[in-house]
Amino acid sequence: MGSLNIYYKLLNLMITIKKYYILLPLFCSFLIGENKKVVFVAGAKSHGYFSHEHIAGSKLLAKQLDEANIGLKSVVVTDDGYPKDPEVFKGAAAVVVYCDGGGRHLLNAHLKEFDQIMKQGVGLACLHYGVEVPKGAPGNYFLKWIGGYFETNWSVNPHWTADFQLFPNHPISFGIKPFSIRDEWYYHMRFREAMKGVTPILSAFPSADTLKRKDGAHSNNAHVRESVLKRKEKQHVAWAYQRGKDYNNGRGFGFTGGHNHVNWGSDNFRKLVLNGIVWISQNNIPPKGVSPGDLSIADLQANQDYEPKGWTSAQIKQKLIEFNQ
Predict the structure, then answer these.
(1) Is the pLDDT of residue 32 over 70?
(2) Are 150 and 189 in contact (CB under 8 A)?
(3) In total, how many domains does the chain have?
């Protein structure tokens, strides 16, 4: 009889354990919430192999973001422009736009409808050429969405090695160590008046060499010469923006690097952008920043728009060593 009682007690215990085992994932889901959706919108083909690789860069960042396991799930749209099905934005916490800009920017023809998405508090990150839109209505919307943009005849786009040594006390800076890297770093952005709501994240002093090109819509101009050569001001090439109540306290992130695809192989470069995406999603960034994960030569070679030209595996490997030694 005693053995039978013990049997029933063990059976009841197993049923109880099983019940709570089933409920545990639901309880954890309640605590941390469902994964938030991040929509990457990758632009059309652009400059050639290993430059402006919008699809390859977006897929690389999306994969790393998902693998970081911090409550975000990525969707990558590769429609060569604005999503053919705008329903993809439904339920998104953030949108990342990586595309050619200026008159070809994929948001130019969708400003009013996209503004409705922004007014829901959805975060927006724009990478490299994706920060440039025409002055006027597009530029004004960008000031509302991400706090700044590349304005022709005001901003410039030279290739130069920027040295980043100091970072602000901001979550996007978590885990970032001093680094320097060559890219087409746009600078002298058009920001909101008095930098209201804008926090510079990456800032550096450009050399006079960045102003040697002929004065033009995207190069050397009187405003930049005054800022760099006369006032010797640091130039902000990445920034965070906190919107107001009229945009449901959404967030923006601008990052002017990303011309050179190989630069995603730099752990600091990549981590900072991952941090920025998490921040605009209004998720918590780990104290040491988002893990940039392991990145192989094959990872960088994947999903390219063009056939390989000019970047051998040996050259990529050497860059990875230089970046992360």
Answers:
(1) no
(2) yes
(3) 2
Do residues 186 and 160 lie in contact, with contact meaning Cβ atoms separated by under 8 Å? no
| C-alpha triplet 28, 33, 39: angle, nearest 5° | 140
* Predicted TM-score of the model (pTM): 0.90
Q: φ and ψ at 254, to 5 degrees?
A: -115, 135
Helices and strands, number each (H, E), in the chain: 8, 11
Question: Could you tell me if residue 272 is left (phi over 0), alpha (psi between -120 and 50 degrees) or otherwise beta?
Answer: alpha
Question: What is d(CA 10, CA 201) in angstroms, rounded to the nearest whole number?
Answer: 59
Q: Distance (Å, rounded) from C-alpha 222 to C-alpha 153?
A: 9
- The tokens 């960045």 sit on which residue? 210
Domain that holds residue 218: 37-324
Q: Which of 160, 150, 127 is nearest to 55 (CA)?
A: 127
Considering only CA atoms, give the Rg of the chain.
Answer: 23
Coil, helix or strand at residue 178: coil
- Average pLDDT for residues 274-292, to the nearest whole number? 97
Q: Which one is predicted more confidently, 21 or 272?
A: 272
Burial class of 145 by CB neighbour count within 10 A (0 to 12, 13 to 18, 19+): buried
- The string of pLDDT tens digits covering residues 180-207 is 999 999 999 999 999 999 999 999 999 9
Q: What is the CATH number of the domain that holds 208?
A: 3.40.50.880
d(CA 325, CA 321): 5
Looking at the structure, tell me whether residues 107 and 140 fall in a common domain: yes
